[in-house]
Write a structure and sequence with these properties.
Layout (H helix, E strand, L loop, with lengths): L4 E5 L3 H12 L3 E6 L2 H10 L1 E5 L4 E3 L2 E4 L10 E6 L6 H8 L3 E9 L6 H8 L4 E6 L3 E5 L2 E4 L6 E7 L6 H10 L4 E4 L3 H22 L3 H6 L1 H20 L12 H10 L1 H14 L9 H7 L10 H10 L5 H14 L18
Parallel strand pairs: 1-2, 1-6, 2-5, 3-10, 6-7, 7-8, 11-12
Antiparallel strand pairs: 3-4, 8-11, 9-10
Helix pairs in contact: 3-4, 6-8, 6-11, 6-13, 8-9, 8-10, 9-10, 12-13
């Protein structure tokens, strides 16, 4: 373990969730972040991780982003954990610090693998699809909210084949949570995109938690409509969209097309599985609470863009982008009352 150098760029909920356990496991991990208070707390007091995976206070090696130029080490693994809109500059900044045999790992929302590959090379990026949950509401403190026994991490090569480095990455990530290797990387990526398109903006629009938007009948049916539209776009781009929170992608399509029992079955299953997600707040709602820019254009906006490329209309995802943008700009506040703007889709 000791001979592997790992960098985590972006130490929020996800970066902390990855970097903390890897440090505990004995790897040489450098945590790099641009939030000054966050770095100072980690430097002086360590990284605190609490919640469903127990309480831990972990001494970590944390640096401010401007301190990166003062270190001489190079890294075997560079985890990109920043927001999607920061992917390009983050990758460019870390390229000189990547060992010749090293690789980037995109542990982000949306599908940013191509952005990284175009800058670093397609042989320099592996995908990491996260289904874990967590939040960071104060500096140096991560709260994990997902079920420790549930699948948390899926890793894959962009070409879908198994490789020694992929096996190493899966072993690495097993210290963070239940992990698996996939040969359907893009289908898994699109599945996670669908989840993010459902839950993230709905929480931002209503102010409800991840579990609440799945349990609430007023939001649940709209989530299914969002999912079905996004699934159709993915399938028409040739992706074999993987199960979405344990429910087959085709079940969402049937529910959207036939309503009745098919819709009721998916709604019931979604509500039952909501407890697996914990009561945490999705990252988009956390961003709105902090007054930060959201990733809406890289989630539902990405679906709209990909639909446009093949001539597929995406009315509900387009509407979601418009409503969430109004919330982000402060024109409206997160509220269940905002569902009136989606009346035609329930």
């Amino acid at each position: 373990m000791g001979n592997r150098e790992i960098a985590i760029l972006g130490v929020g909920a996800i970066g902390g969730t990855i970097g903390g356990p890897l440090t505990q496991a004995g790897y040489n991990v450098t945590l790099i972040d641009q939030w000054p208070e966050n770095v100072e707390v980690m430097k002086t007091s360590g990284l605190t991780i609490s919640g469903t995976h127990g309480d831990h206070l972990i001494p970590v090696n944390a640096i401010h982003i401007h301190e990166l130029c003062t270190i001489s080490k190079m890294f075997d693994w560079v985890f990109i954990c920043v927001k999607s809109y920061d992917t390009a500059w983050a990758t460019t900044m870390m390229l000189p610090y990547l060992k010749p045999h090293g690789a980037f790992v995109s542990a982000q929302n949306s599908i940013n693998d191509n952005t990284i590959a175009e800058l670093a090379g397609f042989n320099k990026i592996l995908a990491c699809v996260l289904t874990l949950g967590g939040g960071m509401y104060e500096p140096g403190n991560v709260m994990r909210t997902n079920d420790p026994k549930a699948l948390a991490i899926t890793v894959g090569e962009l070409h879908g084949q198994s490789t020694p480095r992929l096996i190493e990455l899966e072993d690495l990530m097993s210290h963070v949570g239940v992990s698996k290797i996939t040969n359907n990387t893009w289908g898994e990526r699109w599945s996670k995109l669908v989840v993010n398109c459902m839950v993230n903006p709905m929480a931002g629009i209503t102010g409800l938690s991840s579990a609440e938007v799945r349990r609430n009948p007023a939001t649940r049916r709209i989530l299914i409509r969002i999912a079905a539209e996004a699934i159709r776009v993915g399938m028409n781009h040739g992706f074999e969209v993987a199960n979405i929170n344990g429910i087959p992608a085709t079940a969402y399509l049937e529910a959207d097309e036939n309503m009745g029992t098919a819709m009721e079955n998916v709604e019931t299953e979604m509500a039952l599985r909501s407890n697996e997600r914990g009561e945490g707040l999705p990252s988009m709602l956390q961003d709105l609470m902090k007054g930060r820019k959201t990733e809406i254009n890289y989630l539902n906006g990405y679906v709209v863009e990909k639909g446009s490329q093949i001539g597929m209309p995406t009315p509900i995802n387009h509407t979601i982008v418009d409503i969430l943008t109004s919330v982000e700009k402060g024109v409206i506040n997160p509220s269940i009352d905002n569902l009136k703007r989606l009346k035609g889709f329930n």
